[in-house]
TrEMBL record:
SUPFAM superfamilies: FAD/NAD(P)-binding domain (SSF51905). InterPro entries: FAD-binding_Monooxygenases, FAD/NAD-bd_sf, Flavin_mOase-like. The keyword Disulfide bond does not apply. One of its GO terms (molecular function) is NADP binding. Keywords: FAD, Flavoprotein, NADP, Oxidoreductase. This is Cyclohexanone monooxygenase. The keyword Ribosomal protein does not apply. It comes from Trichoderma gamsii.
Length: 534
């Protein structure tokens, strides 16, 4: 049995950052990842068109400004290949590769009270001991494979966008894409010109805002380099950790004509997330304001899409409250003769046969089926791991109490176990969320190590206080119940996968800026809400 001070599970954005922070403390650290390459989610999602929906200049770590010069980005939104290479470059730059063990999957982890250590067991038979355990397993990692009648009968290949690690030949194929979130929209737009036929199968239509994924000019890059600190000030004060001005103006405070003019300008500029968060401050909180934006989107769909039947099927009938999909040329793609849509609200799904997908209308014959059905978000990655704390497993505790945490960083009954982007993390641009959580965790560990030294080497346990957790979860529920997201079926409340509805929501819905303030407030009060036990 091998031992180190700390073990990190995952080698994506979260794993690498926590590895860097723990090594800075002088600890012995080992990171493990089941993938054969560094990169986390960006290794597993190599489907055509896979792209970040955060601007390239902030979809990276803020602590390494040199990378702006040495690891430049060619486009406004970084591709899967670009992100994967960036993470590999970071690992090399900070000499992390020797501390990362790939092709090694965590099977179980158990806390031993007597020795105050975690014992981790891996699929290759290795067993390791550590004082600290950090899980950076990713919130978009475990593919959601829905139970679809007849799927096993289909005689052609079935691919999932969340488990796509090689390039498949789709040329001149009849392709059915099940799902129309970010991955479903991206892959549709990117394969349309190469396939014989592409059909988007949807439970409900999706609002898709255009974004400007074009080449970055030298002038733009130079300006970002000069003003990078100001860019991050915008990020720090924005609900989704984006480089946008935080808005408080109500969409209802201006005339209908002015709203229309503003939104038309955003559309022409392909402004992506600005529709939800960049101009008006109440799109995500006021149902009336949200409906006005929905009406605008529906007008644009009718203007762009030429076939009235496709317009009808592509027009959503719910609020704009799922995770925003931003992609250029989505609606325009449906004007191609070889691209069609099947909306189950009009022609319900019946079954998958060996030759395709049957609805109440007809059998749609296909050569390939692509599942763009998303992920078992947040806790899906934990469900496959047997993590046992003081008295029970994490799965048992979450099954009883709901998927929960304190500050999205730790949970009661699991000392010295820390999450990177755990339950109730904010929705938004992930790198800054990862950094603020990782800095908090490394700060707590630094304190514990200092106390350990002062106590003659006696181990110190860090554990979320039960009352602090209750207060945090009550706050999450209050925020969730007052949000328009509450009334929309999506993964935000855990109801796109096997878990079903989660009352508190699996995300913090008060925005990144408020989350950052909550974490910084706890840190300024000597990590309030966490107990240091010896």
């Amino acid at each position: 049995m091998s031992s180190v001070d700390a073990i990190v599970i995952g080698a994506g954005f979260g794993g690498l950052y926590n590895l860097i922070k723990l090594k800075e403390l002088g600890l012995s650290v080992r990171a493990f990842d089941k993938a054969p390459e560094i990169g986390g989610t960006w290794y597993w999602s190599q489907y055509p068109g896979a792209t970040s929906d955060s601007a390239s200049e902030i979809y990276r770590y803020r602590f390494n400004k040199d990378a702006l010069q040495t690891d430049v980005w060619p486009d406004h939104y970084v591709s899967q290949k670009g992100t994967l290479q960036y993470l590999k470059n970071i690992a090399k730059l900070y000499d992390l590769e020797k501390d990362i063990q790939l092709k090694t999957k965590l099977v179980s982890a158990a806390f031993d009270s007597a020795s105050a250590t975690w014992t981790t067991t891996f699929d290759n038979g290795e067993v390791w001991k550590s004082t600290y355990l950090i899980t950076a397993v990713g919130i978009f990692h475990t593919p959601n494979y829905p139970k679809i009648t007849g799927l096993e009968k289909f005689k052609g290949p079935v691919y999932h966008t969340g488990d796509w690690t090689e390039q498949y030949d789709l040329k001149d194929k009849r392709v059915g894409i099940i799902g129309n979130g970010s991955s479903g929209a991206q892959i549709l737009v990117n394969i349309a010109d190469d396939v014989k036929q592409a059909i988007s199968f949807q439970r409900s239509a999706q609002y898709v805002a255009p974004h400007p994924n074009k080449a970055v000019t030298a002038e733009y890059r130079e300006n970002i380099n000069k003003t990078y600190d100001d860019v991050w000030k915008l990020v720090d004060n924005h609900p989704t950790a984006m480089p946008l001005e935080h808005q408080t103006t109500s969409a209802l405070s201006v005339s209908p004509e002015e709203r229309e003019r503003i939104w038309e300008e955003l559309w022409d500029k392909k402004s992506g997330f600005s529709f939800m968060y960049g101009v008006f401050g109440d799109i995500h909180s006021s149902e009336e304001a949200n409906k006005e934006l929905c009406n605008f989107f529906n007008k644009k769909i009718a203007q762009i899409v030429e076939d009235p039947e496709k317009v009808k099927k592509l027009t959503p009938n719910e609020l704009y409250g799922k995770r925003p999909v931003t992609l250029s040329n989505y609606y325009e793609t449906f004007n191609k003769k070889n691209v069609d849509i099947v909306n189950y609200q009009f022609t319900p799904f019946v079954e998958i046969t060996e030759n395709g997908i049957r609805t109440t209308e007809k059998l749609h014959e296909l050569d390939v089926i692509i599942l763009a059905t998303g992920f078992e978000v947040v806790d899906g990655s934990y469900a496959a791991i047997d993590i046992k704390g003081r008295t029970e497993t994490l799965s048992q505790q979450w099954a009883r109490d709901g998927v929960s945490s304190y500050l999205a960083i730790g949970d009661t009954g699991f000392p010295n176990l820390f999450f990177s982007v755990g339950p109730q993390s904010p929705l938004g641009n992930m790198p800054p969320i990862i950094e603020i959580q990782g800095a908090f965790v490394s700060g707590m560990i630094a304190k514990a190590e200092k106390l350990k030294k002062e106590n003659g080497g006696k181990p110190v346990l860090i554990e979320a206080d039960a009352e602090a957790k209750k207060g945090w979860m009550d706050l999450c529920r209050m925020i969730a119940n007052g949000s328009i997201f509450r009334n929309i079926k999506s993964y935000i409340f855990g109801n796109n996968g096997p878990r079903g509805d989660d009352n508190a929501g699996i995300f913090w819905l008060a925005g990144y800026a408020n989350y950052r303030k909550a974490v910084e407030d706890a840190q300024s009060k000597d990590f309030a809400g966490f107990k240091f036990l010896s």
